[in-house]
């Protein structure tokens, strides 16, 4: 049993990670600015800004999951906040899992990342900020920090929640597509992939993608 701290634990991705972690018997701490609408039994909920709460929840953690969204008052601040979380995770000796976006993946080995191409205007700012958090880890992660940056499939989101199948693929920084050219993953299966990586680390200081 591990102690897992989830930043953004009441959001779509973080909430799924919290539920999956509890179902596997882990001790879970959820950090968010608001109380959950439907608390999960056995979860310790901490409310407040990530910077305010981190100092009292990261020490002693076995894994830290960063699943904040670059929206609202977090817009434009994600790199700064994640830099602090990565440093504290390193000091605690915790595995650090940072959730990014599909656009940080590549369409093919060695090809420019999707975010370097044409991104619809309504998604561009979030895509660029998400990519900046990947660059932060790739270029500035504290020495010795065991990190992994995880991107979901292109069709991932609360609007396409799907179901838990327990069957999915984990790749590197090249996007995974199915035989019909689709790129999808349910919220529950994406969370399962994250918990698998925490329980059985297979990628270290690396960028991975998850899809069916």
Extract low-pLDDT stretches: none
Which CATH architecture is right?
3-Layer(aba) Sandwich
Coarse shape: globular
Total helical elements: 5
CATH homologous superfamily caption: NAD(P)-binding Rossmann-like Domain
Percent strand equals 15-25%
Strand order in the sheet with the most strands: 3-2-1-4-5-6-8-7
List the domain count as a whole number. 1
**Termini, distance in Å?**
28 Å
- Mind telling me the CATH class? Alpha Beta
Assembly level: single chain
- List how many beta strands DSSP finds: 8
Order of helix and strand elements from N to C terminus: EHEEHEHEHEEHE
Sketch the major β-sheet. 8 strands, mixed
Q: Roughly what percent helix?
A: 25-40%
Q: What structural category arises from helix and sheet content?
A: alpha/beta
Give average pLDDT, whole number: 96
Q: Could you say what the CATH topology is called?
A: Rossmann fold
- Our Rg estimate from Cα atoms comes to 16 Å
Give your account of this protein's structure.
With 212 residues, this protein is of the alpha/beta class. It has a single domain (3-211), classed as Rossmann fold, CATH 3.40.50. It is built from five helices and eight strands, in the order βαββαβαβαββαβ. Helix 1 (12-23) links the parallel strand 1 and strand 2 (27-32). The longest helix has 20 residues, at 121-140.
């Amino acid at each position: 049993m591990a102690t897992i701290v989830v930043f953004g634990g009441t959001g779509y991705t973080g909430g799924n990670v919290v539920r999956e972690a509890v179902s596997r018997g882990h001790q879970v701490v959820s950090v968010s600015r608001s109380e959950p609408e439907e608390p999960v039994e056995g979860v310790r909920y901490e409310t407040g800004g990530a910077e305010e709460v981190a100092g009292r929840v990261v020490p002693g953690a076995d894994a830290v999951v960063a699943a904040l969204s670059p929206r609202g008052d977090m817009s434009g601040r994600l790199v700064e906040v994640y830099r602090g979380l990565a440093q504290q995770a390193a000091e605690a000796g915790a595995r650090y899992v940072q959730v990014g976006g599909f656009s940080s993946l590549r369409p093919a080995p060695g090809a420019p990342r999707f975010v370097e191409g044409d991104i619809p205007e309504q998604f561009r700012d979030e895509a660029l900020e998400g990519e900046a958090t990947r660059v932060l880890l790739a270029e500035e992660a504290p020495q010795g920090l065991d990190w992994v940056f995880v991107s979901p499939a292109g069709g991932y989101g609360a609007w396409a929640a799907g179901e838990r199948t327990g069957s999915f693929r984990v790749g590197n920084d090249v996007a995974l597509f199915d035989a019909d050219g689709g790129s999808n993953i349910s919220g529950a299966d994406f969370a399962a992939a994250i918990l698998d990586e925490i329980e059985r680390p297979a990628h270290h200081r690396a960028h991975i993608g998850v899809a069916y």
